[in-house]
Amino acid sequence: MIRNTDRNARCVLLLCALGLVLSCSPESDGPPAAAGGPHSVLLDTDMGLDDVRAIMAVLADTSLKVRHILTVEGSAALGAGTDNLIGLLESHQIHSVSVIAGTGYMDRPAPAWRAGANTLLGEKFPPPRELSPSSLDSRWMDGQEDLHDVVAIGPLGNLARLIGTGGRSLTSRTRIWVPAHIEGDLLSGWNLSYDEQATRSVFESAGTIFIVDVPPVSPEETYRLLSSLKGNARSAEWIRRVNSRGAATGHGMRLFDELVVVGLPRPDLITVSDDAYTARIAADGKLRLQKETGGNIRLVRIAELDRALTILKTLWEAGPISDHQIRPGKTIPPEEYLRAFHGHLGPYVVLGYRMGREALKELRSDGHFGLTAEVHSLLSPPHSCLIDGVQLGSGCTLGKRNITIRTEEGPAWTLFRSENGESIRIRLREEIPGVVADLVSTRGVEAAGRQMLARSTDELFRKEPGR
């Protein structure tokens, strides 16, 4: 995580001054900034692999504030990309960012890498659990009074809709950042060409546009950087896994959108052109820049690429900052859903549930996905009721095929493995089956279940490293 230093403090003062100038004139030489703290950005993404990495960096950056993210069809299909975004947020325990599903396309062919983007090369986040996307409404933009910048890291269909249907704040006050490649007066980029009509509309009608000329980073250099990430932050772990897959396929082996978001809040890291420009579709069908006094476009370049890459690495290793909101499902008393699923509060279903919950705590897992359970137990009731409890406690289920059952004599045990490479073996203590039998005989089955809920973990289980 980037910490404040004397230099950063000076940067904040500079950002404040630049923000005041920009609010009066779109022809200012400096990048946008917010006075008095982190500035508010809106992300508009098509959820390619570089977008996912960019979002992870933004959510770890204390100088930026993101309350809304729009999705647009592009690298990923609209539905798959929106689900992946929600999975990313929920996996990092971020529930305060709203997701808005925007523009989809029925008349454009999918890019060659669409399948890899939809599936995130086999490293998909869990599907949505609590967050639900809303639909894009043109009137929504006018209520975002503190929004300073829009970062468009996908096709521009959403922005064209907002401008075309009266998004007044988007055409006058808000600055738009767009990554592209600039060669002479030629402006190019897949995001710009996917919906050329939307690109033309935005460039002709938006207020201030900062086009970031993204410097080339070779696939080999990208692979080395992403492979070098350290630590156990979920973002770093995910990027390392995807990077190993991407190296084999070529998909995701580039840095593009990430460099836009790292330069946005750091005026000492970028340069902004003195000249103003407009962009038009020329007679040859290409998008070309033209110098024009009072034009709405400024060109931005990353002045210190090595430092930008170092900052990105630091943000990824720190990981997105959780908002620590309590998930509603956790507040249901466990005996209620144990009864609802299993039919009654039996002692072995409780023991299995306690096993599963303990495994999640030890493995730092949210459960359900990225986890497997291998249960060793007698396969006759009441002992086999423990299997139902393990499913409820860990979220490993027969339907998802991330639980397996092995027949074994003696006290039951379960081996839990996490996708981060950690594992733990949790065993019933040898005396517990006898204790359970006595409780059922003398006090009844549900009283025995309540006893298993009340006893300490150490009384019930032995924990060992998994193998």
Protein architecture, described:
This protein is an alpha/beta fold and 467 residues long. It folds into two domains: 6-318, Alpha-Beta Complex (Inosine-uridine Nucleoside N-ribohydrolase, Chain A), CATH 3.90.245.10; 332-465, 2-Layer Sandwich (60s Ribosomal Protein L30, Chain: A). It has 18 helices and 17 strands. The two termini are 34 Å apart. The model is unreliable at 1-29 (pLDDT under 50).
Q: Which architecture of the largest domain per CATH? A: Alpha-Beta Complex
Q: Tell me about the largest β-sheet.
A: 12 strands, mixed
Strand content: 15-25%
Q: What's the total number of strands?
A: 17
Supply the number of structural domains: 2
List the total number of helices: 18
Secondary-structure map:
Blueprint: H1 6-24, E1 39-45, H2 49-60, E2 64-71, H3 78-91, E3 98-101, H4 114-119, E4 134-135, E5 147-153, H5 157-164, H6 168-172, E6 175-183, E7 186-188, H7 190-194, H8 196-205, E8 208-213, H9 219-227, H10 234-249, H11 257-263, E9 270-272, E10 277-281, E11 287-291, E12 297-302, H12 305-318, H13 334-342, H14 347-363, E13 371-377, H15 385-394, E14 403-407, E15 413-418, E16 423-428, H16 432-443, H17 445-454, H18 457-460, E17 461-465
Parallel strand pairs: 1-2, 1-5, 2-3, 3-4, 5-6, 6-8, 8-12, 13-14
Antiparallel strand pairs: 6-7, 7-11, 9-12, 10-11, 13-15, 15-16, 16-17
Please give a quick description of this structure.
This protein is α/β, with parallel strands linked by helices.
Notable features of this structure?
5-stranded mixed beta sheet, elongated, alpha/beta
